[in-house]
Hints:
Blueprint: E1 4-9, H1 16-28, E2 37-42, H2 48-55, E3 61-65, H3 82-87, E4 92-95, H4 98-103, H5 108-120, E5 124-129, H6 133-137, H7 141-153, H8 158-161, E6 165-168, H9 182-200, H10 202-205, E7 210-213, H11 218-225, E8 232-235, H12 242-255
Parallel strand pairs: 1-2, 1-8, 2-3, 3-4, 4-5, 5-6, 6-7, 7-8
Helix pairs in contact: 1-2, 1-12, 5-7, 7-9, 11-12
Bound molecules: 1,3-dihydroxyacetonephosphate (13P).
Amino acid sequence: MRKQIAAANWKMNLTIEEAEQLMNEILEAKIFLEPQQQAVFAVPFPYLINIKNKIGEQPNFFVAAQNCASEKSGAYTGETSAQMINSININYVLIGHSERREYYNETNEILTKKINLALANNLNPIFCCGESLKIREGNSQNEFVQNQLKESLFHLAAGEINKIIIAYEPIWAIGTGLTASSLQAQEMHAHIRKVLVDKYGEEISKTISILYGGSVKAANALEIFSQPDVDGGLVGGASLNAQEFITIIKSLKKINCPIN
Ligand code: 13P
């Protein structure tokens, strides 16, 4: 069974006091997830160790970096390598978030290098893809997302692709309050799954988790997560509010219940 994940992306928000307070409140809710379910917190670099320590032994809770360098090591002032992230026992890294692609010119080619370094350093990449409003209006979102996957992931062998988590985040739904309808999310997730099946076959593709991101909140998480090809969410704004994110994590537990 593939993993179901509620992932928080704090982006460039919160002081350390605020971050610790938020994490305390979430941990106080004592959410015990099923074995195949996880809560992942993509936190700013300076807080990785603090939040990792705070989570401690809480089962199925993990910490992620929000980015890693496209080079292995050396004279790259200000960068953080995949090896460094692994050396502090962090398990996940976001790669190719649309904000990185847009504001820091991260191309599919650069992201390929990051994916390779993440895997070489035992990090599980959460690879983000998704189209702009213009592309959606031109109805070429399927080809666009397929190309993002092809150019950054399809060099991977079958034994590597199953370490990747895909996050579909339509840019027009990020931080805008506009959410893809659960039907739109399901349509794209089914398309992504089909693209994976064509390249890697049914067996491998059904083990790859595909998360939805874009204005997920407590009020819509369960409906979105209940779609057959949606395996959880990557959440920005709503992950900064303890009660909101607690409800979002708990939505994972309700997905498999016959009566929600
Ligand atoms: P919002 O949930 O704020 O729309 O952000 C989504 C996102 O970018 C998560 O990575």
